[in-house]
Amino acid sequence: MHGSGEPQALKEEYSRLAILLDRCRHGDELAWEALVREYQSRVYGLAYHYSGNPEDARDIAQTAFIKIYRQLDSCVGARHFLPWMICVTRNTSIDHLRRRNARPPTQDVSADGLGGLPDRGTTPEEITLALSRKELLYRALRALTELNREIILLREIQELTLEEVASMLRVPLGTIKSRLPRARLELAEKVLTLSAESERTVGR
């Protein structure tokens, strides 16, 4: 993800982001709006995974962006922005849940709140199928153990490095490396189980 061997496109992306962040730090409102537009779906999606509730996720995302804006000077370099933003959002989500004195729900949720689906050239049938698959994945994630869920969420969905995941979760890197394959297997088993249950329900 990082390093001198990174692709040219990634270097250009970091360069563009660095300029955008610098403009934000100097009070450029248009730059901040552009930054929010670029990352709002990612921040909301992460908040939703933790809260399991669309309304809570919107509140968390709004609070997270306020914190991000106020703490931009603490983010050193464009290459560190994404993991830093994810860390702020994760901490905001956890704080929100603690204030409500509740853990993330385990019940089934509506696919309406999952968001982020591509809509260009998709038919209603394709949209329905995509929503169904996304809801199934969400339900499977909710059924994982807490550590495995966060490892999958941060590594596979948010695409952080293993080192970044270990640092964010305050868990030894070796633990993350050994748990990741098991977390993937557990997720696959949950998906298969939930899919089979869904097919049986439809077949009744």
Concise synopsis of the structure shown:
It is built from eight helices and no strands. The chain has 204 residues and is mostly helical.
Fold and architecture overview:
The protein is mainly alpha-helical and 204 residues long. Helix content is 72%, strand content 0%. It has helices at 8-25, 29-51, 54-70, 81-99, 124-142, 146-157, 162-169, 173-203. It starts with 7 loop residues before the first helix and ends with a helix.
Tally of extended strands? 0
Per CATH, the class of the largest domain reads: Mainly Alpha
Strand content: under 5%
Task: Please identify the structural class as seen in this structure.
Answer: mainly alpha
Rg estimate, integer Å: 18 Å
| Known CATH architecture of the largest domain | Orthogonal Bundle
Mean pLDDT, as a whole number? 83
Summed up, the helix count is 8
Keywords:
mainly alpha; Rna Polymerase Sigma Factor, Chain: A; 2 domains; 204 residues; 8 helices; 0% strand; globular; Arc Repressor Mutant, subunit A
Topology:
Elements: H1 8-25, H2 29-51, H3 54-70, H4 81-99, H5 124-142, H6 146-157, H7 162-169, H8 173-203
Helix pairs in contact: 1-2, 2-3, 2-4, 3-4, 5-8, 6-8, 7-8
